Amino acid sequence: MSEREPIHEPALPYIDEEVEAIHAAADRFEHATAPELLEWALDRFHPRMAISAAGGVDGMALIDMAWRINPEIRVFTLDTGRLPPETYTLFEEIREHYGIAVEFEYPTARPSRSWSRPRART
Asked: pTM of the predicted model, to two decimals?
């Protein structure tokens, strides 16, 4: 079996300092656990960083892990207007349990209308 070709060219650093920073980060996090990596990211980027969650188990695990590191973690979800009621209930439970007010982001109206418009048969 042959090795797969990349679907794009690898990104090249713009300056030598980027190369050093990339290699240092790779070395630092080579054997890091998920909580260690998340703690580093929260320490460095909070409050600009937020966890994206759609209501699945993976997002819930990240929320719990991040909250244990920093209870002021920001969480957002993309609300297309087509989420099942259970998802809204789950985010309300997150607010009650963790004290996190999930931020709802909405796509622009024009594209979302075209996605939900019935298609004509040809």
From this structure: 0.69
